[in-house]
Here is the input.
Amino acid sequence: MKQTNRRKFIKGSLYGAAGTSTFCSLPAKAKVKGANSDVRVAVVGVGGRGGGHVNACLGNKNVRVTGVCDADYKRNEANANRVKGKQGAEPKRYEDYRELCTDKNIDAVMIATPNHLHSLVAILAAQNGKHVYVEKPVSHNIWEGRKLVEASVKYGKKGVIIQHGMQRRSDSGWREVMEWIKDKPLGEMLVSRGFCYKPRKSIGKVQAPKQPPAEINYDLWSGPREMLPVKRERFHYDWHWQRQYGNGDIGNQGPHQMDVARWALGQEKCAPNVLSIGGRFGYDDDGDTANTQIAFFDYKPVPLIFEVRGLPEKGLDWGKGMSNYKGARVGNVIEFEGGYISESKAYDNKGKSIKKFGITNGRGHFENWIFSIQQGKLEHELSAHTGHISSALGHMANISYYIGESASAEKCTNSLNGNKMKEEVFNRFAQHLDNNGIDIKKAQPTLGPLLNFDPDKELFTGDLSDQANKLVKGDYREGFRIPESV
Here is the structure.
C-alpha cells in the first residue's frame, strides 16, 4: 500500500501559511441531506468498534461508505475490500485522518480511534463541514471535551451535526424510565448508581519496549502524544489500560452507565466535587489505570456513585463470573424511598418486580444520527454537550485517583466523613478484594483526595487544585494540536 508522504502533506493547504495549525480556519457549510439522498460516510479507526461502524453503514440504505481510514494499513485494506464486496465500489483508503477531513467527497465522519484522538479528529472534521459521530468517551480529557462542545456550537450554526456514541440515549426503554420517574412513583430519589463489573484480565508485562507492528504508522497512531516506547504485548485494544491513550474502564465502558446515572439526576453540568478510590489489583502488568475503582460525585440533592470491578466475583477465578449489585453488572441502579430501578425493571424495597420497561439495548442510535443529518437538527440528548459532561465525570474521577496516595482501609473510611452510603460502597469494595484473596493491608488502595470543581469554568478549585488542573488538559505534539479557539 502506498504510504502518505507526511512531509509533502504538511506543506499542503491543511496547515495554511503558518504551517503550524492542524485546523483549517475556512468556514464550511454542511449539506443538509434530503430524505432520498445518500450520506457519504468515512470511518476513521476501523478496528473492532470501527468495523462495527462500517457494518452499520453498509446496512443502511441511506448511507454510502466512501472512505476508510486507519494508521494500520491491514485494517484499512480489509475494510475497504469488505465495503467493495457489499457496495460494488471500493472506498478511498486514507492513512492520515487530516487528509480525509478535507475531502469534499465526504459528508460525514464516524470516529472509533483510540481515545486520545477522538476530540482531535471530531473538531477537524466539523471545521471542514463534516457531520460527526464520535465514540465514547468523546474526549481524552476535560479541556478537549469542552473544545468539542464549542466546535459543535460554532459549526452547528453552519448545519454540522456532532453526535456522541452513547447508545442508551436513543434507547426507547431508558427514555420510558426517565419519563416514569418524573412523577416520583417510588418516592424521592436517594442515589443514582452506575456499574461496570466487566472482566478484565491481565494484559501481560513485556520485558523490554517493543517495536510497533510493521503495518502501523506509529507517528499517526500516536497523534498528539509523543511517540513513546510501546510497553504492551498486544498493540491494539490494550491501550485502554494505559493512561496516555485510554481512560481505564471508568472512561471506556463507564461513560454509557455514567451518562444514564446523570440523566436520571437531570444534571446538565459536571459535579461540584469528586473523590475516587481504586487500584490495579490481582496482577502486575503493563496497565496503569485502575481495574477496581469507586467514585463519589456529590450532586445536590441526590448523589451519583460509580463502581468499576474488573476482577471476578471470588478467588481470581474467571469461571466464577462477575459480581452484581441488585442484578446490575454493567448497568444502572436508581434507588428511591419506595424501591429501585435496576436496568429494565422497577422493584419495591422487598425486591418484588412491579414494572418492566422496554429496554432495547441502544438500537437506533446510528440511525438517529443519519436521521438528524437528513433533518438538519439534533436532539440535545444526542449532542456533544451530553457526551462531554458524562465523559468529563470519568476524567474527574481519574484525576482524583491519579493524584492520590496509598492508604489504609481505615484512612479510606475516614475520608468519607461518616457518610453511611459511601462507607457501604467502600466496605463492598474491600470485601470484593478480600473475596479475591487480596489483602487490603498489603495491597493498599490509592485514596484520591476530595477535589472541589467549578462546573461553569470546568476547573478544580481549593486544595490541590493546582495539581489537579494540570491533568485537565493533555499534551499535544506539533501538527496535532487543538487550538484554544476552535
Notes: The first strand starts at residue 39 and ends at 44. The two ends are 34 Å apart (CA to CA). Residues 430 and 440 are 7 Å apart (CA to CA).
